[in-house]
Amino acid sequence: MPAHLFAALYRELHNLAHRALQREGNHLAISTTTLLHEAYINLNQRESASFEHPGGFLAYAAQAMRGHIVDLTRRRLAAKRGRDFVITGLHTGLLEEIPDEQCLLRIDEAQKSLWEIDSSLGELVDLKYFAGSRSPRSRRCAARPSAPCNVNGIGHACCCSI
Question: Which of 133, 134, 128 is closest to 159 using CA atoms?
Answer without folding.
Answer: 128
